[in-house]
Amino acid sequence: MDWFEKSLQENFDLPPKNPSEEAQRRWRSAVGALVKNRRRRFRMVADLDSRSQNEAHQRSIQEKIRLALYVQKAAITFIDGTKHKEYRLTEDIINARFSINPDELASITSKHDVKALRMHGGVDGISKKIRSTFDHGISASDLDTRQNIYGVNRYAEKPSRSFWMFVWDALQDMTLIILMVCALISAVVGLASEGFPKGMYDGLGIILSILLVVMVTAVSDYRQSLQFKELDNEKKKIFIHVTRDGSRQKISIYDLVVGDIVHLSIGDQVPADGLYIHGYSLLIDESSLSGESDPVYISKDKPFLLAGTKVQDGSAKMMVTAVGMRTEWGRLMSTLSEGGEDETPLQVKLNGVATIIGKIGLVFATLTFVVLMVRFLIEKGLTVGLSNWYSTDALTIVNYFATAVTIIVVAVPEGLPLAVTLSLAFAMKKLMHDKALVRHLSACETMGSAGTICTDKTGTLTTNHMVVDRIWISDASKSVTSDSSLEDLNSVISPTTLGLFLQGIFENTSAEVVKEKDGAQTVLGTPTERAILEFGLKLQGSHDAEDRTCTKVKVEPFNSDKKKMAVLVSLPNGTYRWFSKGASEIVVQMCDMMVDADGNSVPLSEAQRRNILDAINAFASDALRTLCLAYKEVDDFDDDSDSPTGGFTLISIFGIKDPLHPGVKDAVKACMSAGIIVRMVTGDNINTAKAIAKECGILTDDGIAIEGQDFRSKSPEEMRDLIPKIRVMARSLPLDKHTLVTNLRGMFHEVVAVTGDGTNDAPALHEADIGLAMGIAGTEVAKESADVIVLDDNFTTIINVARWGRAVYINIQKFVQFQLTVNIVALAINFVSACITGSAPLTAVQLLWVNMIMDTLGALALATEPPNDDMMKRPPVRRGESFITKVMWRNIIGQSLYQLVVLGALMFGGEQLLNIKGADSKSVINTLIFNSFVFCQVFNEINSREMQKINVFRALFH
What we know:
The chain has 34 helices and 26 strands. It is of the alpha+beta class. Helix 2 (21-46) runs antiparallel to helix 3 (53-80), helix 17 (441-447) packs across helix 31 (795-836) and helix 33 packs antiparallel against helix 34 (921-943). Residues 1-18, 38-56, 78-84, 336-341 and 541-547 have low confidence and may be disordered.
């Protein structure tokens, strides 16, 4: 434990005086248990298989954060027992009319200091000291003052790397360093033998070429870093609902200040440290901070909320007490630097290819140097003898060595990883314009290989702006799309029934009506909740009037497993009433009574039950989403028990419509022709799901629709036969989606893309090869688990991601074909020439020049070709398929042979063929060979635009 104590002594300023033996014993025991627990966790991470290396990397970062937190807590606990920190109010705090020091306020939450909280008068006392009220919030005019005193909600980030750091990195290449040494030796020997300036030409030419290569590489890498920083900032844009100036507003988490009243709901990330004001069944997932998987229940007795944690269940209001670097998360992040972007699978694969080619290049370079040296020594021995050496001989040997090193430079395709990065970055930028934010580079590339897309219905295939289209109430089904139909509904039901109906709508909802700054009313909430509340407001019945007749006592938020939500209200007569709203088949099962036209509760006969189920099916077959509303009167209730599961009285059935996004049908059709199977996985009624699936073309004649309950009851053998046919899975639980994705990847080796928007979708998003979260309807938990965020929640955008993914893969194949052809020709021509003539026709400067153009402009041109329609007419690349295809080998070998024939003819018969004579004929023919080589690569570049088709000029100017 010495290292641990030493670390704490250094990092946490332990007091020099020894605390009591009991305090030391307790502290040692706590830290010992901590270390044991952390070691066990690190071993678990180390044992992960290779497929999960990226996850292991992320988890290890989290483990470091958690370890830092535990060490910090242990140290602070230890210190707290030995010294007390005094906080004082400075002049600027007093002038700003605040009554609590920022550090003291932050420490109350971060240390969960109940004693200090009580000392300040609890949450009410703190709110007075920071001039914030629970209903009104803070005043927007105070924002600057609050930020000056209590800080801004931003974390300190590492400074960006400067351009010159990228230049320095580019200069670290070993082959370039060797070439620089060769260039300097060449310049020195040249000056000694041929004088100035002629002796400088070769050496200076090589140095200038190297500097040009370095500058181009550095500029490219620097621009990449700026682009990734821009994308990273886009990734961090999170919006939260707050109450300010008495109205509810949506603001960026960066604009959050101490005193803000924040509204939290399921799936939200807690944006700052704060104190719980009030809420319903608030469960917080603190695993990102504590490492413990069990959620923490937050209440008035335990009101502390920490930044970076997530809302797992329930809803609440929170008052912000610390932001930015004063939060617990901010303090930890300041001690850790997040790891950079991991290499994508394709980059790893291509790095392997580059290594093999580099080794081949090294062998050829060594052989070329050996052949040139042997020929030189034999010629020298036969002419002037090996004992006579001149400065020109040293220059010749240096040039031979430079040629050999340059062959390595040309042979090693450094451009491959660059081409991948360029292509992915270009695709990411284009996709940003197309409303898709790619969070991980590899997702863009992997999406091109996707063979299955498991998509949600609501919000992805449909517009997510729902409206109540039809309603069943008092044994009558009515269309409610126009004002006249609403008046008609008012005339057929009694005021008693209408009052009960409106009370059920207004009380049992997670949506709320808020006033904008301009005085206009807006309904906030999930699309389904908004549709019902908007319908209630249209049907009239003042929301405020209903609020005054009863009081909410208990709320059960919507749960994806129970598929219902409930609220308990107290009535003026002293009794209580439960309202329950949820999936039709579940709520109807809970009912044994129904409300008639006069507002009386009458028993539900079997005939009426059948009529109700027929009405539900009729709504669903018209692609309407159905929800039921019911109530139950009770005399008393138990705080700890859930809402009743029977004895309810059915009030109404809502038929909610959600129209398809424009372009979804065409997008699904494009998927089918591209060999991508689209499967709809939804929590909706099976009839509704089938109707929508048929409308957009997902449910074909050979496909089947199944309910989640039936799916999860199947054995693995049955699933093997069933899964390929599934096109629609209705009434599914999050676990069903996860099981489907796992089996598609495991049993059928499919590359699977999954869309999701809820917290419950996070496991499936994480399990899939590509997780696509919805940017509008998606919760922060879903977005964090995803690889791509679809900013407009539109299925057509997902197809764009697939198109660009395919474009990336094919563009890299084109570049590899181009690069390998150049490498083979350059190696072969220099090696053969060295063996036969004793000299290399392509000099170091020339090869460096060609290499620079190939690795930058060539990569840029081929790697940034936009996708075309033909790409979506071929099947996806399956797992394990070879990256270099037979077609590519055909093109590489064909192009190489053609170039070698042309260059060979010029090298061995050029002087005779072109009748070139004179003392400089050798220089002229070598210049001609170099220019022919360059033009061959220009033709090769254009030929590489199409690997299979004859017309390589198609869309050349687009």
